[in-house]
Structure formats: structure tokens, C-alpha cells
Specification:
two-stranded antiparallel sheet, mainly alpha
Length: 232
């Protein structure tokens, strides 16, 4: 038994020494699939339109596989992809993508109907692009500052603190999804239709999702006297 274990150890050490550094299966660290010598994939079409530069290392180093969410399509929007990931439950990305697409369809139908019913002088100001409406709605829901619980002298204070871009985006998207799930009519209203309604309200800077942003700003302003606790 001891000899067999020694044999396995020797074989593993042999492969670690002689195997090329770019072989992912022979020199794997924990759950890392790609070795550090692999290049990141480039999914930008403009990169491939440029003349190639002479770089021997770039031609000899292997390239990682692109993620399933990466695409060079003109219809691929990183913010929409991120929002779809937040909508997804139990790993069912296809269902989440179909829900978001249906919500965009409801938004476009609503805006087209509004466009045809509006007077001629108002039509140029009605946006019928659901992606632009989505970006504007999320931007209107994005907070600037937040609060952080800080314990001082046995008491917990809500201390105002600036938010990172990722945190701001996460809060806006999470509020939008939470409001859709909590306050929709489960019998007569689909998730996609309620999501479209919330997006349209946020696009007009109205609705409960925008109110959450203002409530957070009010809470931060009410606790601005404790702002110095953030630096201790």
C-alpha cells in the first residue's frame, strides 16, 4: 500500500516537472480550469479588423474559451446580460432571458401605442427603443450614497458611505427585481408584464423603485452627523 502511494506521488511529481505549463489538467490548482499562461479571449470585432502585429508570444500562447455570455452580436448589451443573471433562478438562464425579452416587448408595444396616440409635435420625444428605456430606468434608480452599520461604544450607527459602481448597479437592479416579485398580481399579471410596468415608471422617474433610492438618500442625509465614523 505504501509503495503504491509512493508510486502515485512520484508520477504526480514527474508530470508537474515535465508537463508544459499550459497543460490545464496536469498542473491544476484547486478548481482553476485555465493556467495563468493562457490569454484572455477578445470578443471585440474592431480588434480583429486592425492589422496584426508581429508578436511571437501571442501566436504561441493558447487562448481561453470565451464565456457563454460573451458575444460579438450588435444585440449583446452587458447591462442587459447582467440584469438577466439577476433575474435568473436555479440556473435557468433561458427562462430568465425569455422573461426579459418579453418585458422589452411589452415596453415597446406600450411606447408604440403611445407614439401613435400622441400629437404630431410630441412624437419626436417618445422613445420606442426598449433597451434605451431600460438603461434610463436603471440609471434613475441608481443611488449615489448608501449607509453602513458601524458599531461604536456598544451602539450601532448607520454611517453614510459612498457606493462603488458595481454596488450602485446591483442595488438598482436588485430593487427593480424585488419590487416586481413582491408587488405583482400573481393571478392576473405575469412577471414580464409587471417588470415592464416598473421599467416604464422608473423611466419617468416615478414608482416605488425610484422611491427606494430617495429613501436611501434621506437615510444617509439624516445620519450625516455620523459620517466621521467611517474613517475609524
Amino acid at each position: 500500500m505504501a509503495l503504491s502511494m509512493c508510486g502515485k506521488s512520484a508520477i504526480s511529481q514527474f508530470y508537474r516537472i515535465t508537463a508544459p505549463k499550459w497543460a490545464p489538467g496536469l498542473d491544476q490548482v484547486r478548481t482553476v480550469v485555465w493556467h495563468e499562461t493562457y490569454q484572455e479571449p477578445v470578443v471585440d470585432k474592431e480588434y480583429y479588423r486592425k492589422p496584426e502585429e508581429i508578436d511571437e508570444l501571442a501566436h504561441t500562447r493558447p487562448v481561453k474559451s470565451a464565456l457563454s455570455t460573451q458575444s460579438t452580436s450588435v444585440f449583446n448589451y452587458p447591462e442587459v446580460t447582467k440584469f438577466t443573471s439577476y433575474v435568473m433562478k436555479k440556473g435557468d438562464r433561458a427562462l430568465a432571458r425569455s422573461i426579459v425579452e418579453k418585458a422589452f416587448e411589452h415596453v415597446k408595444r406600450h411606447q408604440i401605442k403611445k407614439y401613435h396616440e400622441a400629437p404630431a409635435e410630441e412624437k419626436p420625444y417618445i422613445d420606442c427603443n426598449p433597451v434605451r428605456i431600460f438603461h434610463t430606468a436603471i440609471e434613475n434608480c441608481t443611488p449615489v450614497v448608501g449607509v453602513k452599520s458601524v458599531k461604536r461604544g456598544g451602539k450601532t450607527y448607520q454611517v453614510p458611505t459612498p457606493l462603488t459602481d458595481n454596488r450602485r448597479r446591483f442595488l438598482a437592479m436588485n430593487w427593480m427585481i424585488a419590487e416586481t416579485r413582491e408587488n405583482r398580481d400573481w393571478d392576473n399579471q405575469s412577471f414580464a408584464k409587471k417588470l415592464a410596468s416598473n421599467l416604464l415608471e422608473a423611466y419617468q422617474e416615478q414608482g416605488k423603485v425610484v422611491k427606494r433610492k430617495y429613501d436611501l438618500h434621506k437615510l444617509a442625509d439624516a445620519n450625516k452627523a455620523y459620517g466621521h465614523f467611517r474613517f475609524w
